[in-house]
Design a protein that fits this description.
The structure holds two protein chains of two kinds. Chain A has a single domain, classed as Lipocalin (Beta Barrel). Chain A is mainly β. In chain A, about 5% of the residues lie in helices and about 60% in strands. Classes of the chains: A mainly beta, B alpha/beta.
């Protein structure tokens, strides 16, 4: 990695100011394998949401490893019927702690468009992700703001159409039944975010799975139960979704 | 050995937590992942009740400017002092109605018995002030100037206390207790404001069931069907003012306060829906901190808790809304009851 690359990546992280908890549905080995510098991670999903009903969508993420420590990812997601569209850029720095334990610092900027309600939502997130043989933990903070787009002319003189939430904590806990680098694995997770949204106090939970396929490919899947009202102690069915995807490296 | 010891310590900790009665009264750990009281059933029941009792309480009538009183998160347990004070303040000031933003009592049968008694006493004081006896069983409103005024039995006189349900009201499957007193958690009320002999205006009150942090599929379907869009007359009379009452807050007052438990899509749905309803003021509770802001033409007031345990010192925990033909304003209302005075 030359000086220019390092500068750009560092600037991206600093620009992020905070960065995003990167909710990769693929839950296996994340670090650079030493050979393949490029990754693409694509998935299809469908689910049902209380507000918008049935929806389906796709997302794709490209990752480039500059060095065994530095990488950058860019992704997009489209949720059809729900009419939510999102893009993001994430910069990552890996700090090896023990032989099989890594700490990742993820800096992320994300933009989501909630077309149905004409709301733009930029998010900046900074998080630390610790992965051990069986457990993983993510902790960080987000700046979330939203901006209503179709404000009536008569409101503009006295009302606000934007809101920035105070810092929002990001948290994820995961556990796998096999070591992280095993050819297949099954795990449980809880977290207050998903790939393209960060919740305040609603705790998602679910099952995750991945296995190795021929031709440098991995198959992964995730069942995500997203309740509302978790911290009100009345967690209520809000959204359930299933995601299936492939990861390819070259 | 170390692993076993850690496991024993963890188990001992969980057992201690589980055995702590005070914590169990307040907290439902399993409710963090999946709750036992479902919003869908509450809304279904509320909607059925509302349809069957549409003539009971859907209209309030008042001449000239009027006021109403709003409070939040009274968390009545053994000491209903603040709740009693709110009811007395409203009666003394001739407020047209009371609105309560939920978490009216913590979930225990004895707390609801206390609350029920309190409301019955308040209704008696209300009827004695605003009605007079026609005969042994019937009462007539003091404002009724007809020669042969309509009379009502005591039971038929509605007490204008409109609550929404809060999460602590029903944490331990307490919907049965709450609904036994208040019946419906999802409803609307029209206020017919007589301006002069020929003219009147209609104001719209919308009460949402947001205790679960989501309105739920049924409530959203009903809203999308226009159930709360107002039904006054043939629908040709536009509402003058619209007020929404919700337990769960939308905006987070400060960094160290709990945020809203609405999900992202639902937050945007509600902000959009409030604008469609032309809401003037949306009242929220839940977070126990005061917050005021204007977003997209809607004024949002998030009320502090009026509970003496949360706020032991006297303070401005209530809000009074002054509704005039040309002006809508609000003012804080002080509560003086304090545990320290007991």
């Amino acid at each position: 990695m030359n000086f220019l690359q390092k500068t750009i990546l560092t600037a991206a992280l600093l620009f992020a100011g905070t960065s995003a908890a990167f909710a990769q549905a693929y839950s296996g080995e994340r670090k650079f394998d030493g050979v393949h510098k490029n990754e693409i991670n694509g998935s299809l999903f469908f689910g049902e949401n209380v507000v918008t009903g049935f929806y389906f969508g796709e997302n794709a993420i490209y990752t480039h490893h500059f060095t065994p420590r530095w990488s950058i990812s860019a992704g997009q997601q489209i949720q059809f019927l729900k009419q939510v569209y999102a893009i993001d850029v994430t910069g990552t720095y890996r700090i090896p702690i023990l032989k099989k334990t890594n700490l990742y610092i993820d800096g992320r900027v994300m933009y989501s468009r909630y077309q149905r309600w004409k709301v733009n939502e930029p998010v900046v997130n900074l998080s630390a992700y610790l992965e051990t043989t069986y457990f993983d933990l993510r902790w960080g903070w987000s700046f979330i703001s939203y901006h209503k787009q179709d404000v009536k002319e008569e409101y503009k003189s006295y009302t606000s159409s934007s809101y920035t939430e105070p810092l929002v904590m990001t948290l994820q806990l995961g556990i796998n039944i096999r070591p992280r680098n095993h050819p297949w694995n099954l795990g449980l997770f809880i977290r207050n975010f998903d790939q393209y949204y960060y919740e305040n106090w609603n705790i998602n939970w679910g099952l995750r799975f991945h296995c190795t396929l021929p031709l440098d490919m991995k198959l992964f899947s995730e069942l995500n139960v997203r309740p509302a009202g978790s911290i009100s102690q009345l967690a209520t069915r809000y959204e359930t979704s299933l995601k299936v995807g492939l990861k390819y490296v070259w | 050995m170390k692993k076993k010891l850690s496991l024993y310590i963890l188990l001992a900790g969980l057992c201690t937590l589980a055995s702590c009665q005070k914590l169990r009264d307040k907290i439902s750990p399993q409710g963090i992942l999946m709750a036992g009281t479902a919003v869908e059933e509450r809304v279904e029941m509320s909607n059925l009740f509302y349809k069957d009792h549409m003539d009971d309480q859907v209209y309030l009538t008042v001449k000239g400017d009027y006021t109403f009183l709003v409070g939040a998160d009274s968390h009545v347990t053994t000491d209903p002092g603040r709740m009693d004070e709110m009811l007395a303040i409203g009666l003394e000031n001739d407020d047209l109605f009371y609105a309560h933003l939920g978490d009216i009592a913590d979930t225990k049968p004895q707390y609801y018995i206390t609350l029920d008694s309190l409301l019955k006493e308040a209704k008696l004081r209300y009827v004695e002030k605003y009605y007079h006896k026609k005969n042994e069983y019937e009462w007539v409103a003091n404002t009724n100037e007809d020669e042969n005024p309509l009379s009502s039995t005591y039971e038929e006189i509605p007490f204008p206390f409109f609550p929404v349900v809060g999460n602590h009201d029903i944490t331990h499957n307490g919907w049965a207790l709450w609904s036994n007193i208040f019946h419906s958690s999802f409803y609307e009320v029209d206020v017919i404001n007589i301006l002069d002999d020929e003219d009147f205006a209609v104001d719209h009150l919308i009460f949402l069931d947001s205790a679960s942090g989501t309105l739920g599929q049924k409530q959203i379907e009903l809203i999308n069907q226009g159930v709360l869009d107002g039904k006054y007359g043939d629908g040709s009379t536009p509402y003058r003012y619209t007020f929404v009452f919700s337990h769960t807050n939308i905006f987070r007052p400060q960094f160290f306060e709990f945020a809203s438990t609405f999900t992202r899509e639902e937050t945007y749905f509600l902000l959009d829906q409030f604008e469609k309803w032309n809401v003037n003021i949306a009242f929220c509770g839940h977070v126990h901190t005061w917050d005021e802001r204007n977003f997209n033409g809607v004024h949002y007031l998030t009320l502090d808790s009026m509970c003496e345990k949360n706020n032991p010192n006297p303070g401005d925990y209530l809000v009074r809304i002054n509704v005039g033909q040309d002006e809508l304003s609000w003012e804080p209302v002080r509560m003086n009851y304090s545990i320290k005075k007991k």
